[in-house]
Prior knowledge:
The structure is a homodimer of 137-residue chains. The first copy, chain A, is built from 7 helices and 3 strands, in the order H-H-H-E-H-H-E-E-H-H. Chain A has 137 residues and is mainly alpha-helical. The first copy, chain A, has a 3-stranded antiparallel sheet. In chain A, strand 2 and strand 3 (93-98) form a beta hairpin. Chain A is globular, with a radius of gyration of 20 Å. In chain A, 29% of the residues are buried. Chains A and B meet through helix 1, helix 2, helix 3, helix 6 and helix 7 of A and helix 1, helix 2, helix 3, helix 6 and helix 7 of B. Chain B binds a DNA duplex (30 and 30 nucleotides) through helix 5.
Amino acid sequence: MAPNPKPRKDLTRSEREREDPELEALVRDIIERVADKWTMLALEVLEEHGRLRFSRLGELIGGVSQKMLTKTVRQMEADGLVLRTIYPVIPPRVEYELTDMGRSLGAAFCGVWTWAEKNRAAIKKARKSFQERDAER
Amino acid sequence: MAPNPKPRKDLTRSEREREDPELEALVRDIIERVADKWTMLALEVLEEHGRLRFSRLGELIGGVSQKMLTKTVRQMEADGLVLRTIYPVIPPRVEYELTDMGRSLGAAFCGVWTWAEKNRAAIKKARKSFQERDAER
DNA sequence: ATTTACACTAACCAAAGGGAAGTAGGCTCC
DNA sequence: GGAGCCTACTTCCCTTTGGTTAGTGTAAAT
Lengths: 137, 137
């Protein structure tokens, strides 16, 4: 395989997007849906723990209302990020697990988690010095 | 300095977090602040265009109210992601640019942008088939 | 017979967010 | 010399979103 197929020139992602406004809009739309607190947390929990029932998922995420959990998980299902399996038993049993696409998104977010971990000290410091600057303003 | 202090064994991020609930909480806090639509979009625009004035930044982000842009950018400043330079002139002139930390966060998010780009077709398809399934329910 | 378990809805209320108008104050233009 | 203009906000009001609480259905357990 040649090292670089090179359609015309080498373009960065943003250059490609500038050339294709439709792509830009779509990517933006996806980001808007995915850049959601509960989606990110659900993604992490599901990535870490695998297949989970509704309430267990909620427990592990922590602090999420049932309403938002339902909504988040439905949205993720609609976007093809999670698979929802319903067992028609009583009491109801529903299990959620990541699809391949969901897992790949989790992998993409991995960089953000490690960034947060690495930079937590710097952020703490930045917040403190900002507060001080702001206080004396 | 030894190449690897290695507290006890090699741990994944999630294992490390499970062992340290305070770290977990802090990372979660950071994620909650950073996993915000406007923050992510501002980050991208600033990464792509460099130093920008307030209204130009808003234009490039698109669809953001002045109120939210102010809030977002202030929060990013407080977290040490952007540098805010005020020129005391009239009419006012304020410029924003990413700090090193902001740029490193942008780099971390890069994986998510490319994911969105790569998976846009799959998401579109997933949404459509979900709608159909949902309609006949 | 009453309680419990579980995955949701529905109703209600608080909070976040959008839209539009207001602000400051040197500058330009008549 | 006075009437706007320019820009980065800020404030007010109203809509949308999110959280809280209270159901709901049914079969097994008590």
